[in-house]
Every structure is written in C-alpha cells, then in structure tokens.
Amino acid sequence: MSEIANTPVVTRIAPSPTGDMHIGTARTALFSWLYARGRGGKFLLRIEDTDRARSTPEATQGILDGMEWLGLDYDGEAVSQFERADRHAEVAREMLAAGKAYKCFATQDEIESFREEARARKESTLYRSPWRDVAEADHPDLPYVIRVKAPREGATVVQDKVQGDVTFKNDQLDDMILLRSDGTPTYMLAVVVDDHDMGVTHVIRGDDHLANAARQMTIYEAMGWPLPVYAHIPLIFGPDGKKMSKRHGAVGVKEYQAMGYPAAGMRNYLARLGWSHGDDEFFTDAQAQEWFDLDGINKAPARFDTKKLENICGQHIAILADDEILSEIDGYLAASGGTALEPGQKTRLAAALPCLKGSAKTYPQLLEKARFALVSRPVDMDEKAQKQLVSVSNGILEELTPHLQNASWERDALEQAVGQVMEAMELGFGKVAGPLRSALAGRAATPSVLDMMLVLGREESLARIEDFRAMVKELEG
C-alpha cells in the first residue's frame, strides 16, 4: 500500500477527554502544528470521546483551553469521534460485505477459557476465532462482533519517519474487533476511518502507538485506502529517566499556565524536547515552522528539565511585546486563581515592563518585581525592608526629598539628585538606595530605584518617601 503522495499536508491531534491535557499530548500537537504550518498545510483537532464512561465536558473544554493557551490554532471545527459512530459502523459493514471481515460469535467466557488453557500450556494467548471462515449459512442467531481478517502469513512493515522500518510478523497480529456486539465501533476502527475521512496525510503520535499502526494498516489495506505517513515520537521522561508522571510534578498543560510560564517559551521548549535543529536552543515560532522536519526528531526519549524551560521562558518574556505580556498575565492570574489586576494597576505595570521583563523567567517572578507598581499606599514592608526604619535612613531621605522635589523627573536629573546627596553626606550609592528601595517598594531587593521613581512619578514617589519617614518617627517616638 503506497503512502499518500503529492497532496497538501494534513496533520491532526486526537486527544481523549478523560483528564487534563498531558504535556506529552501538547508536544505531539506542537509537532503536528509545526509540520503542517511550515508547509502551508492543515492542522486538525479531533476529540476522541468514544469512552463515554470517562469522557467529560470539562476535560474537552480543558483540551480546547490548552490549545488556545499554547497558541496552536487548528483549521475548522473540532471533530467529535463519538458523533461519527454511524460512519465507523458503516465501514465495518463494508469490510464484512467485501469478505475483509467476519462475524465472530465467540463469547467472552469462551475467549477467556481459551486464554487460560493457553497460559497453562505456556503458549501464545493470541485468540484465533473459529468463526473466521464459517459460511453465512452456518451462522447462529446469536449476538456477534465483527472482526477484521488480519493476514496470517508474512510480515507487516511500518515505514516510520522516526523509528525507521519496523517489522511485525503477521502471525502475531490478531483479528481485532471492529464492531462490538452492541453495534458500537472500537477505537482502532474509529481512528483509521476518521484519519481517512479527514484527509490526514501525516500521523504524528507517541511511539506507544507503534504496534497499533501495524494493526490499523490491515483496515487501510482492506478498504484500499492510501496509508498516511507515520512518525511515532518517543515519550517524555522525567529527570529520573522514567515516563513523565505526577511524581515528577506538573504534567497537565493548564498547570504550566497556572505556574506562569509564557506560551511562546513553552512552545520553544517543547519543540526542543525530542527535536533539534543544530545547536539552536532559542527560536521564534516562525523559525520553528521553517526548520521543523520529521528527520530532526530523536529516537530516544527526551528528559524534561525545568531549569531549561525557565531559561527559555525568560528569553521569550524579554522579547515579547508589552501588550502580549499583559494579556498573558491576565490568563495566568485566571488560571492560578489570582486576583485580576485593576485598570490602574495595569497602567502602572505597562509602564514598568520595559525595565522588568529582561530579568524574569515566569510571570510570578515578573509580578513580584513589579510589586512596587501594583501596591497602594501605605506600602507594607518585608522583614529586610523594615531594618531600614531607623533615624539614619530618615536623615538620608530628609536630605534627598528637596532635591527630588526640584528635579525635572527624568533619569539624568534623578540620578543627579541622588548623587548630590551621596556627595553631601559622603555616602556610597548603596547607603542612599537602601532606604529609598524600602520607601518606594517595601522590599530590600527591587528594580533600580531610578526606574521605580520614573514609573511611579513625582507625586507618588514623594508620598511614599514621606510615609516611610513618618513610620520612622513613629517607631522612634
């Protein structure tokens, strides 16, 4: 069976809405998105919601929200696999009519009995149905499933763009069930029918589906459909070399949004997690779309490294447009249950971003650095800042205040005002900046005092200094 050739690229992501969107699913979606977008193709979303007992509307919405946060736009509407059940059943019956499938009347008890006996004899438990070649005239009037007639001899070769050619002996392939006795289709059938009907040319998915590819190829063969190009990518491991799970910390996409990672940084890091383009670590979406190819995907599992993620994210925050950062901070606060910023706080934060965004790796870090611009008077002080509440600090700020009152409130003028106090009192910059930091921000570790004064403005800066001096006087009686 030949691959789909000379047709526009169509990829898909097909998550199951049975829980939070896993970070591994997000990476698979990213790879599929990059491959399609870099070639002018289509990227589709299918919700594999056939497991009605475990699928939930909340999980479906979580998938949609995760895709939106990551910026992975898809073409058309999301497809519900469950709603296509009639089409799946139709294909199973087509295969039955064509002699590519058969009715199997074996009961679960009979199948389990066979397997128990096989295990006792230490033989293969692969079930071989006795109904495979029974004529229709000899069929009983009993419930049945429809099974595919898998090849029994030779081998099936999955030509994979990541794993290479992977051979499965056909005597190890079962006649898998296509349609259950209640008329509902199985996952294995639904996936193939949906991929074919949606025009998917490239199936990029986890390598835990590699064996499924060999089994699903029997359906493509039976229907005479062209095979998609397969690319089975390795799983993501934690730092300990084991499959990424809750024991390693966050694994759900929404958890990373709630921790305040920028979406662009997340895309960059996930792209590098199992794929490489030379030694490039930091790159934009445009570069990733241009560079991404299946040949660059590694066979070995990638290890998730939080420090690398944070470093990449810090570089992206530094180059993001201010309005993008403000929008993402809104999303972060909503996802983490934080308090939304008021209009005045947003205005002050926007003014502070140019001097802050080059030194934060996550949005919580950025907001902490911007705290001076977000709080209202009187500014509460942490323990280290409180140590500045002494008469010496008061004296420094008393000397500084008239210089600031007369300054033109530009960087050079403010720097000159501070310099004059340093010279008059024979102090180093740190001695003057210490009480000034505490007065302006209530913290001992802050952005530049000059930056803070420029962001806060003359009136607010002087008011905070006066508040600080009043606190010193009150403490000292």
Task: Kindly describe this structure.
The chain is mostly helical and 477 residues long. The chain folds into four domains: 1-76 and 234-319, 3-Layer(aba) Sandwich (Rossmann fold), CATH 3.40.50; 83-190, Glutamyl-tRNA Synthetase, Domain 3 (Glutamyl-tRNA Synthetase, domain 3, Alpha-Beta Complex); 321-374; 383-475, Arc Repressor Mutant, subunit A (Orthogonal Bundle), CATH 1.10.10.350. It has 19 helices and twelve strands. It has a three-stranded parallel sheet, with helices on one face. Strand 2 (42-47), helix 2 (57-70) and strand 3 form a beta-alpha-beta unit. Helix 3 (85-97) crosses helix 5 (187-197), helix 12 (343-356) packs across helix 19 and helix 16 (391-406) crosses helix 19. The longest helix is centred in the C-terminal third of the chain and has 27 residues, at 449-475. The termini are far apart. The model has no long low-confidence stretch (mean pLDDT 94).
- Helix-and-strand structural type: mainly alpha
Share of helical residues: 40-55%
Strand content: 5-15%
**In CATH terms, what is the architecture of the largest domain?**
3-Layer(aba) Sandwich
Largest sheet strand order: 1-2-3
Q: By CATH's scheme, which homologous superfamily of the largest domain applies?
A: HUPs
Family: Belongs to the class-I aminoacyl-tRNA synthetase family. Glutamate--tRNA ligase type 1 subfamily.
EC number: 6.1.1.17
InterPro entries: aa-tRNA-synth_I_cd-bd, aa-tRNA-synth_I_codon-bd_sub2, aa-tRNA-synth_I_CS, aa_tRNA-synth_I_cd-bd_sf, Glu-tRNA-ligase_bac/mito, Glu/Gln-tRNA-synth, Glu/Gln-tRNA-synth_Ib_cat-dom, GluQ/Sye
Keywords: Aminoacyl-tRNA synthetase, ATP-binding, Cytoplasm, Ligase, Nucleotide-binding, Protein biosynthesis
